[in-house]
Structure formats: C-alpha cells, structure tokens
UniProtKB/TrEMBL annotation:
Keyword DNA-binding: yes
Domain HTH araC/xylS-type: 160-262
Listed name of the protein: AraC-like DNA-binding protein
Source organism: Chitinophaga polysaccharea
Molecular-function GO terms, alphabetical: DNA-binding transcription factor activity; sequence-specific DNA binding
Top-level lineage group: Bacteria
Keywords, alphabetical: DNA-binding, Transcription, Transcription regulation
UniProt key word DNA-binding: yes
Amino acid sequence: MQRYMQVPPSIALSGFIKHYLFLETTTEAVKQLRLFADGHTGWVFSFKDRLIRGFTPDGTPAYLPDSFVYGQVNAFRDLYGHGHISLMIVVFHAHAVYSLLGIPSGELKDDILPTAELFGSAAGTLYDRLLEQPDISEKIRMVEDFFGTWLSGKSFPVQSPVTAAMRFIATSKGLVTVQQLTQLTGCHERKLERAFTAGIGVSPKQFAGIVKLHVFLRCLKTSPSSTHLTSLAYDAGYADQPHLIREFKKYTGLTPSQYRHQVHPLAVNFLAFRSPGV
C-alpha cells in the first residue's frame, strides 16, 4: 500500500508554508529512504511506526521522534522505515524557519530536532490532537490554527535582499551568477552570502544549484524514458552530461541512471530504494 497527497496551505499562511504532504506506505523489510536537498525545510509528524535515523554497531535502530523539524539538507540524508509509515509533512518555504523562529537557518543545516525544542510544549499537544484525527482537512485546520496562534503579535526579520535574490534564482531556473545577484540586491558578495546563510541556510550558489537540479528533475519526469540524458542536461542548463552527473550525484548520492532505475520517489526529494541502497 502506498498513498501520496499534496495540499496547498491557506492564503494566510502561504508566505511561510509551501504545501502539506501526506505519505503512507507499508514495508515488511527495513527500507532505505533518502531525503535530498530541495531548498526547503519541514516539520514531520509520524503517526504510525517511527522513522529510523540509523543503526548502532550492534544493529539496534535509533528512532527519530514522532514529531521533528529538519533544516536545510546540504546534499542528502539516509533514513530507514519499517512497518506502517504514515507521515504528515509541513513543507516550509526556504526562509520560513528564520522568519518563524528567529533562529539563523544555518544553525539548523543538516540537522533534525524534536519540535518541542523549537515550538515548545504546544507542539506536543498539537501532535496528540493530530494523532487522534483521521480527517486530512481537519489535520490541516489544526496545524493552521497552531500557526495562527504562533504568529499572533509577533514581528519577523526583514529579508528583502534574500527574498529578491531567491525569486530571481527561481525565475532564472538556477542559471545565475553571484555577480548578477549582487547587482540585483545592491549587496556585496560576502554580505549577501551571510544573509543567505542566516535566512535560508545555504549560500546563493548552493541555492541556485539546488534550483537547477530540480529543473532537471522536472525535465526527467515529463520526458519520455527514451530521451537521452545529454539532451535533458542541456535543457536544464548543464554544460554537458558529465557536469550533470557530477552535480546530480553531489546532491542525491545517485547518478541520473540510478535515480531512474533503483529508487521510487515518495515525494520530489524523498526516495525509497527498490533494492539495497547506494
């Protein structure tokens, strides 16, 4: 059994939340999963069997909390699942963690934290209510009510240069230079890099590379399987196929061919391996 659903947020929260994901799958054997960079962070609620962070030398699983927040993923991170996996993921916009919490996003880079450490005891109460609620629409309403309360009366960091640069990178499909970004924002390169690291957790160059990777993934998804990788590489703005393979492997740990044949996407940047992992 496998289910996948993506739901947009309300207009009121669309400046912070990109979308909600609902994933459900069952597996008898321990399955290797892989989360890789997509430029976003997220809050995960696990309602059935918990995800596994890794294993001790004697094979004992180290479980993740029922509810956790993950920061920007610099490249990729392997997790494991066993049994009945049922997840609700609040996928944040790149700047949202800094905006919501006032914590520099670079401090959460490649990290996973229990939500209580970030949102306090109210996060545990929210999880308990979500666990008892089977209806997806009601789950979303509960989360949105939580954020409505959280945002009430708060002021948030202004990130105008970062926001403008991110939009330019997105509309340019990652095909930008740092010089173009400094001209756009009026910031020196070092100042812009510091602002990006604090605001979204990665440098402008890294963010552009992630955007470009996902342009290629969209090309791969929408093109016939017979389409040659070189053609897709050019379409996504890579100089040649070797450049594509090098960048793709840096962010996913896989070659494009391995991605096509050895994994099954549970979400855009969340994979399940069909066979022993790479």
